[in-house]
Structures are given as C-alpha cells and as structure tokens.
Amino acid sequence: MTQFLELRNARREYDTPEGGKVAALDGINLDVGPNEFVTLLGPSGCGKTTLLRAISGFEQLDDGKMMLDGVDIRNQPAHKRPVNTVFQSYALFSHMSVARNVGYALEVAGVAKADRKARVDATLAKVGLADMGSRKPSQLSGGQRQRVALARAIIAQPKLLLLDEPLSALDRNLRQQMQLELKSLQDDLGIAFIFVTHDQEEALTMSDRIVVMQKGRIEQIGTPREIYRKPRNRFVAEFVGETNLFDVTFADIQNGVATAKTAQGMQLLVQAEGIVSGQTATVILRPSDFRFGGTGKTLSGTVTREVYLGSDLHYLVLPDAGGEEIKVSARDDAGSPEVGAQVTLSYDPAVVHILESR
Amino acid sequence: MKTIAKSAVLATTLALGAATVAAADGKLNLYNWGDYINPEVLQKFTEETGIAVNLDTYSSNEEMLAKIQAGATGYDIVFPSVHMQDVMVKLDLLERTDINKSENFKNIDPVSLRSKEDPESAYCLPYAWGTVGVFYNKSITGELKTWEDFFAVPEKTGGKITLLDDMREVLAIGLMVNGHSVNSSDPAEIKQAMEYILTKKKDVTAFTYDSQALMAAGDLAATQFFVGMNVLTSEMDDVDYMLPAEGATMYQENMCVLKTAPNMAEAKAFMEFYLRPEIAVMNVEQQFNGTANIPARDMIPDIIRNDPNINVGPETMARLQIFEDLGATLKLYDRAWNTIRTAQ
Amino acid sequence: MARSVRQSWILTALLAPVTIYLGIFFLGPLLIIAVFSLLEPGLYGGVVWNFYHWNYGRVFGWADGFIEVYEPIYLIILGRSLMFAVFTVFAALVLCYPTAFWVSRLPERWRMFFLFLITLPFFTSLIVRLYAWLLILKPSGLINQVLLGAGIVNTPLDILYTPFAVVLGMVYVMIPFMFLPVFAAVDNLDMALVEASSDLGASRIQTFFKVVLPQTFAGIVGGAVIVFIPSVGNFVVPDVLGGAKGLMVGNLVEQQFLSARNWPFGSALSMIIMAVVLSVLLVFLRRSRTAGVTP
To answer: Residue C243: which of B208, B329, B338 has the nearest Cβ?
Structure first.
C-alpha cells in the first residue's frame, strides 16, 4: 500500500485546570492510503476528534510529523490544506442558499461564476439534491442537510475527506442508508476518507481499515475482520462487538491442540500454535461462535436468560463448571432452548482467539 | 455674618412656641427657579405658621408657563420674571391678591413695580432682582470695562470666555453694543445683533450655565453670568464682576399666586411673611441679589452692600435694561439664536 | 375550531394590557403631536386652532412670509444631527464589535463581570455622568493633569466644548446599547462555521466578511438601530459637553417648547425626526433582507 497520509509520533497535550498536562494524542503513528476508507473508533475522549482536527489544521501538533501526499503539512494553516471536513453539526452557513453553501470552496478560491454553477449543480446531483440549490439550509430535513454538508466538502475535490461523526444526528434507518451511500461515494470519488465514530457497527460496515483508539493512543489498526476476529487486547475485544472473554491457563498440548482451563475448571480447546504449557492468557469467543447442540468441541451449561432481537436471539448460558455466564447468539429457529434448559454448546477451536498479553 | 446667624437661631427659638400653637396642617406648594430661595426662609415660615412647604423648581420662564398652560395643578405660588408676569396676567393665569393693600407693603420700593399689566402690584409682590454681567479673572485679563474688552480676551490672552446658553441674554449683547433696545422688534436690528454675535462666536468657548465650577477652577478667563456667582467669587481675590459700559441686563422676578392655587390663604400668608425685612434679607444673604424691600437693604452684610457692582448706584442703573415680552417677534429671535448656534 | 377561537380570545386577553398601554402612552401623545404640528402657534405658547402648514414650510422651503423669509437653517441642523448620529453608531460599533469577541472568549466568571461593568452606568443618572465627563475633560481636569504631569503636552488640550467631546459623550452614553445586542450575536456565533469556512479554503479576511459578519449582522443592525434613534434626538450631550455651540435637532425641539413657546413648530420638527428615523430604518431593514441577512 502506498502511503498517502503519514503521521509519525504525533503528540498533542492540553493543560489541565489543575496545572498538569494531559496527552490528547500520545504518539500516534498512522498511514492512510490514497483511496482508503479509514475509521477512527473509540469512546469519547479517546483522542479521535483531536486527531481529525490535527489533520484538518484546527489543532496544532506539539510534536511529530505529518505528511500529506509527500508534503509536510504540519505547519500549514487549515485553509491551505487540501483537506475538507464534514462537521458533526454540519456547520452549514445559515445565511446562504444551499447552492452557495456547496459552492463556497470555489467562491473563496475565485472560480468564475458560470464554472462554479455547473460544478455546484453536478455536485448537488451527485448527493441527490438536484433541485434544492435555491433553498436555505433551514428549509431542509436533517438528512438533506447532511448531504449538503457532504456536497460542500467534496466540491473542491480534496485529496482527503474528513468526516466527524457525520451520521450521529440521523435516525437509524437513514443512518444505515447513508453508510452505504458514503461508501459508494468514496469508491466513486477515489479519494481517501477518514471517518470518526464511536459506533462500532458503523465502523465495521464502512471501513477498509479501523483504527481503535483509547486515551490518546492507537490500540489496534486493522481491517474490520481483523479487528473483530483478532482483537489485539481486551479493550479492543470489548469495544468492538459482543464478546466472551476467558482468563485461562494452557495445558495438555497434543496434536496441535491445547486445553485452556479457567479458574473454575471449565475447559476450552485451542489451536496450540505458539503456545507453551503452563502459560496464562485471555482467550475470546464471540457469541456467534457458539452453536446449540452439534458436534465438535462442546461445553455444557444451563440457559439463564433469553433476549429476543427479531432476526437474532441472545442467550446467557451458565457453564456447569461455573464462572461467568457465556453470551450466545442464535438464529430464531424453532427448536431453540428455553430458559432453564440444560444445553450443550459446540464451537470450532480454530476460531478461539488468544489476546496478546499486556 | 456671625451676628445674623445668631439672630436666626434666636428667631427660631422664639418661633418654636408659636409653631406649636399654629400647628394647623396647612400646605403651600411653591414652583420656583432652581436655587432661587434660601431654604431657611421656608424653614422659618413653617416654624412660624405650621404650614408645610413643598418646593418644585424650573429653569426657564417658558418651562414654567408651558407646564401651567398644559394644566399642571397643585402649585400655589410661582416666580415669573416681570415680562412673563405680564404674559400670565394677559392669559388670566394669576390671582389678584391685593398685596399692595397690606400694611407692610410700604417697605417696597416703588421703582420695583415694573410690570406693565400690574403697575400697582395688585397681583404680585416684587421678589428679587439682579444683574447679568461679566465675571473675569483679572490676573489673566487685566481690567475689563466693555463687551468689546470681554470678547477680545481670547485673542489677547489666550484665556477662554463663555456666554450664557440663553437666547435673550446672548442676543441682548448684540443689541446693546449696537445701541438698540434689548426688546427690539426691528428685524434689521435683530439681524445686526445676530451678526455681531456671529463674528464673535469663534472666540466663545461655550454657551453654558456651567461656568461657575470652571471659573472657580481657573479654566475660564471671563464669563457672562448672573450676579449670584458673587456668592462664589467674593472669596476669590482675582475674580471681579462688572457691568459693561455698552449696557447690561437686569432681571426681576415677582411672587405671584396662581388662579388655580389650592391653598390661597397659605399663599397670601407667605406673601405677607416675605414683606418682612428680616425675611427678605435672609434671601439676599444667601443669593447675593437685590431686594425691593427698603428696610431690608439696611440689614444687608457689608460685603454685598459695599460692592458697587452688586449694589448698583443710579448711574449704573441707567444702563441696565430689562426684558419685555416679545410677542410674535420671539420667532425672529429664535431663528437668530438657532443660526448663531448652528454656525461653524 | 372552537379551540382556536378560545385560543385567540386568550391571546387577545394577554395582549390587551400591552395594547392599551401603547395606545394610551404612545399612540395618544403621537396623535396629539401630529395634530399640533398643523396648528398655529399661540402667542404665549399652546396652540390656536387654525390650520397652519408653515410649521413644515419653515423647514422645507415655504416660510410664512409675514414675519420671516425662508432659510435652510433647519435642514442644515437636521442633516448635521443625522450625520452625528451615524458617526456615533459607527464609532460605537467599532469599539463594541471587537470587544464583544474578546469578552465572549473570556472564562464565564470574567464574562459575567464584564457584562456587569457594561451595565453599570445604568445605575447612575445620565446628567450626573455627563458632568463627571465635564470635570474629566475640562482644561484643569483629570486628562489634562495626567498629560501635563507626564510631560506629554505643555499647555492643556482643548477637549471640552469641542465636537470631539460631543462624539465622545454620545459614544459613551450609547456603548451599552450597542454592546449588548452585538455581544449577544457574537456570543451566539457558532465557531464551527468559522472552522468550516477556513476548512473550505477561505482566508481569515474572507471568513470574516463572508461568514462572521453576516452571521452577526442581526446584532449589528439591532445595535445600530437602538443607538441611531436616540442619537438623532439627543440634546443633553451637545449642551453639556459641546457648550451648546453645535445645535442638534433635539436641542431645537427642546427649545421650541422651553424657550421659543412654539409648540406647533416643535411638534412639526418631532414629526420630521420620526419620519426620517422610520425611513432610515425601513431602508436599512429592506437592504439587510435582500442581502439575505434576516435575524
């Protein structure tokens, strides 16, 4: 992958009211490809918005390197950077028409009026607002405003588009629709998107790669599949998707398979690659990794709770060996167990993922 | 000054007994110029008669007239200038009091009966009179004798001069230096007066009533003002008061009872009270102006009595003019005054 | 239907006190002024009930011809008063607008303190405050003492009784009225808009003129209107600090009632001021609306 945006050891510190310092960005290293959709994911306060604002130029880095397309942009003012932003609040200019909002970047760059109009019309058409140019932002719905903000940010053909939780104000259906549209728009434009969200589902849906952040640091960078299947640590595992975590000790390595034992004595089979007997670790199984009944490796337990979710059913199963309840998801099939039933859970040892020890 | 204060205390003590006797809860509402009556006069009246006195103030004859015409009620006594008294008699706003039949009216100098509409003083009682002249700081200006001297001050000395913010008083200067009556109704004379003032405007720092404090602080070299400023400047060695050779104006206000007065008896009692020389002199001491009460003149403190510019002699008196009502000609004065104030 | 009728009754009842108040204390006097402005002045004040259009003629070009001939003096006074008012508006705006930005960025505690300072003058009489200025500006006053003491000047500066003193006084009096609406607008300005503009490539100057100014324009218009109207008619400041040397239309009106005894002319002048102020307002509002900057 050719790197397009390159961040090396980026630091940004704030003074705390108590007189100390807190690092909002604590040594960030990040590469983004020229046509890549990268999502910054993390809880609020993790530094993802600060990182985005550092890239757009609204925050200055205290230390580190920031290159865009081979140019050092760290000390460039925001208005000189070939980067545009879709703001969380949309930040539309309420005193201008939709068309003038969209054409703003061209207007301040001195593009001739006729040329500007043609490009505004084309961009509005691209986001599905072909005949809305003469309206005021206040006359639009939330989704329409979101599209205006998008059109305004892409009209100048930035090399990199930054999106700061742009979908958080939309209702669920519209949000899901916009997720798909954004993705296809990105394919269409052929530019890099950096998308900030705290919604892991959104991140999994749209991203080429996800950057999981916490406390100003990057916890893991990877494709959605990597992040979901192979979280590096407990934080990533717990933040992205539903998770069963087991603290285990390995033993009995035979034929490439190891037995992992919890403190309560519950046993899991794990692929033994790189494992030493007696070693402790945390292993993870997603709720969807379990199946009721079936063959293969099994656990037994009692169903304690059932949550109906429409397409899915979620269960909590208390292992016979004791310990924490295991989360299990299943299709809403006939023949699902009832609360109180004694069940057998099967899983594939190959999907049991071992977290890096901290 | 000391002996007067003593006698005032004595009078107050004597009056206390009377006050308790005469504690009728009468009321009297005066409508007077600002700072134009010694508060001790009112206090003494209340002590003697038990009549409570309210005092409201105005700053021009026209303001008072406008309020009375607009229907302001409740006032008993007003203090119009003589020419305004004439207007008010014509407008039938004043009550005939027959104050001239009072025993003490013999105290009043007949010269002070100046009203054309009330020559016998059957309506109003002469209250106070004074002059409008020039106060000057002689350490800056040297001696001044004429209006020409006065207007020459800025150019000669760099000192500042001010005139009153008063249409009649300012135009009067222009009329007097050209030898006309301050009540002229001749448009040519009024224009001549206006042009005279216009030629002097560049030397006039301001038209203002605020010159007392500025004069006291040495910010002004000379100013046109009422004789009453002597209260302040008699203590200042450098500041003299003069009445210019070309002429100066005098004013006289009379005490009049309104037709609509709610407390007619109390109002007449106050007039009688003010006919007493010892009461009239209380005002002179505090105001430094002239009184029509002849016996009172003998009781005036020396510092006032011996100043020929305050206590003017007959030859000075001859060059003083008093304002009369202008009728419709007022419009010409008004426009001349507006032109003066607008000119750059 | 029944409900909306009831609601409109409730609305009427709620608005009635305001309406009656305005009717009695605003429209009533206004009507009296309008009628008086077309009557003959009484010789000793008041009015004579004859139709008399020369009150307006005296200003606009037809004097009565018996007592006086026409001179444009009143138009000059009116024009100068308007100029002074416009100048006051601009000076107050130039002072208040940047200050409003500064104050809106202060920590909450300091902001409240500053807003308190701005409203402090309301607790004292205007006349008293202007006389305080007189003492500050006079030749032996505070400013000159400081300047002389510091050796910056050798002779006291003439500040009192100059047009500068008048503008200074007017701006001083009007600053709270300009500051509060401007501050409200500036404080409400969404900083995301400024960032968006910058993000889209606008320089600071472009951002100011294309985003910040239009977004705060409602506050500017509000402040300008609130300052302009009383400035046109102000007569106290020119008297006290200007030494009554430059006549303003407000002085003229005052004078008609309190010394010239010409109530109808004073009324006519008041009507003219009102007409001028209203038309300026209309033009202003219409232009700001076509510019797309409605509050």
So the answer is: B208
